[in-house]
Structures are given as structure tokens and as C-alpha cells.
Amino acid sequence: MMAYKMKLTASQEAVLNGSKGDVMARVMETMIRYGELFGAESMVPVTGKYNHLVTSFGLKALGPVYDLMEKLIDAGCTSVQKFTADPRPLDKNVPSSFIQKIVFDHFMYSKQEYYESQLDKLGLLEKDAFTCTCYMDEVGNTPGPGDVLSWSESSAVVYANSVLGARCNRNSGIIDLMGSIVGCVPYFGLLTDEGRKATWLVEIKTTKKPEAQLLGSAIGMKVMEDVPYITGLDKWLGTLDEDARTYLKDFGAATASNGAVGLYHVEGITPEAAEQKRALLAENPKVYVIDDAELKRVYDSYPVIWKNKDARPKLCFMGCPHMSMNQLISWTEKVEKGLKESGNEKVVIPTVFTAAPAVLKKFKETSYAMRLEKTGVIVSYICPLMYMNNPLSASMPVITSSNKLRTYTSARYYTDDEILEQITRGGKI
């Protein structure tokens, strides 16, 4: 038995001592060691109805992961909760060349079907439960206030913590599954009241509603892993309605990828800020003022890593994280209007809107689906980031309004208005 400082319950200690087998004991030991690295003194039960896994891709190089999964399956160590998983990396409907497809199918994601079969045995919620926005109503994995989670997908963690009031640390892949298997996670960081205090006061003083992805980028790069308390944004969001939730989805993903934010509070909007107000601020918080000039400075600071900076875009990705239903509808209307004004019938750059399979299913039941199809826009459940990981994709001039995709790949960031201009009219921004 390992030497540990953490105080365990009798049942947790029994598992560690092998009451449920050697593999389960090793899983518990892993969670204990993980917690002690961050100073956790105890474990708390996972209370969310479902879990969410970040590892959804059958990358050929992940042999040790598949071996681990087989050991868990053989030992009967399945997840206590059913779980959703991040988006699939492949979709035949997304444009790719013959050579790109060979790389995808034979050199990158050749283990996709095999890995999905493993996920199914471990407790996958359903066949198409693959999305980074598992918390959307259409998907059904929506935690409640105070629920303790074992998630690791950064954009989902920050949304669950901030907008839903759940409690989850920024875990790593596999740790998310292990926490669900043993049914408990180490108690530290964003699970604690103290860890949810804001050490930054961010004051929004812009003359118009700031671009969600740009604002999130600015805050993420400034506060890094700290918790910000944001004032002045309620002026533009109003209430926590569906539009605000969509805005905060994209905003939070940018804070989490351009920095390492796992929780933010928006004064008058997010649940803990609405209830506790500025009592959420730690003593002597740092202050960051964001005005129009600061957002322009951040935008201008983004490097363009295309080989030819003036290249004509060959592909546009929207939906990282996945788009919501109201985004699909509003963007259908925007694209239609843009095309009408430009005199074009279809988008002039191949464009892919990505969303959860469950959201796409509901969207296809509306009249907007056919309208969007007429514009030439492709809808997909794919993970744009996984597509861009192909070296042949990385060398393409791809544009996006996702600051997460910009951060992790060679895709070039533009604001929503600039994206609309490019895909409906073409020309240089």
C-alpha cells in the first residue's frame, strides 16, 4: 500500500487496499497522488449526473491509452456515470484532398472505430454523444449548481463552473475518466469556496458590445489561470438568456485556451456573482481595464503564421467550441443577407459550421437547415482542431472566428463581421 497524507473515508481506503481489485486500487492510487500534488487533503464524491471525456480521438500514436482502457474494461472498471466525449475528428462531408484523407485515415485516426468501441464499453452515453458543448439542452449533459464534476475539456469546464455554477477543476485527459470510475475527485482549487474567489477585477469600458472571442482572449492572456470578476459586461448582456449563454460559451473558451481560466464571474449575470456580488473578490485584487484601444491592441498582436500572409483562404471553420442552435439560426440569416448584398448565390470560401450531433439533428428539423444548405455552407459534428492537426491542413490558409482554434493551430482569426465579409463577398480584410 502506498504512503499517503490524504484523509480517506473507510470505503475509499478499502478500494485503495484492493477491495474491488488491483486495477481499481491503482485507479484510486492515481487519484490520490494527483490530489496530493495540488495539496488536497481529502476526496469528495462526484455528484454530476454524467461525466464528460476530453479524449475522443482514435489517434494512432495513443497506444498506451488503448492498453489502459483494455485493462479497465477487462477488470470491469467502468464509469459510475454515463459520459459524453469531445467531438469526433473525422467527417467525410468536410472538404479534404485525396492525400489529406489518406493521412487522416491511415496515419492519424486509424484507431477511431476501435477506440469508440472501448468508450462504449466504458460507459458512453449514446452513439453520437460526441461534442465539446455537452452542457447544451439538446445534448442533455447539463450539470446543476454545486454539482461536483470530473471533467477536463477546458471550454466545458469553464462553462460549467461559471455559467452553471457547478464545481470542477481543470483536470487532464484520463483523470476525468478515473474520477468517474472511483466516484470521487480530490478536493482542491475550484472545488473549494476559497478557490472560487476572484483575484482579478476586470472592468469593461468599451463603446460597443465586445467580440466574445476577442474579449475572452484578452482576459485569458492577462489573468492566465486566475479567477477574474468582470464588471461592465452586464450592460451588453442584459440577463442570462440564451443569447448571453451563447456569448459566454465562446468567451469562456477563449479565456481557457488563450490563458488557463477555469472559472470567471460576470457581475449581475453569472449565478455566483448575482448571488454573492463583490464578496467574491479576494482582498486587494489586481485590476485590468479593457477599452476599445486594449481590444485593438490584443487583436493586432495575433501572429499570422501562414507561409503566404496574403493567401486567399481555402477553408473557413465556425464552431470551436461547437455552435449553439441560436448561432446556427442567426448565422443562416447573416449569410443569406450577406450573399444578397454581394450578389452571390453561395459562399465564396468553403465554409463549415460545426455543432453537436444532437443540435444538428434539431436544426435539421427547422426550415433554416435547407436555407443554410442553399448558401453552400456545410454543417458538421467534426472537431476543427483535430482536422487542423493534419500537417496538410496546417499548411492551408484557414480562417476562423474561434480564438481557441487560432491558439492551437495555424488558423487565422477574424471577428464575426470580418468572417461574414470574407465568406459572402471575398476580398482582403
Automatic annotation (TrEMBL):
Protein name: Aconitase subunit 1
The keyword Lyase is assigned to this record: yes
Domain Phosphomevalonate dehydratase large subunit-like: 6-413
Source taxon at top rank: Bacteria
Organism of provenance: Murimonas intestini
Keyword match Amino-acid biosynthesis: no
Any one GO molecular function term: lyase activity
Keywords assigned by UniProt, alphabetized: Iron, Lyase
Family matches, as InterPro entries: PMDh-L-like_dom
Source species taxonomy: Bacteria, Bacillati, Bacillota, Clostridia, Lachnospirales
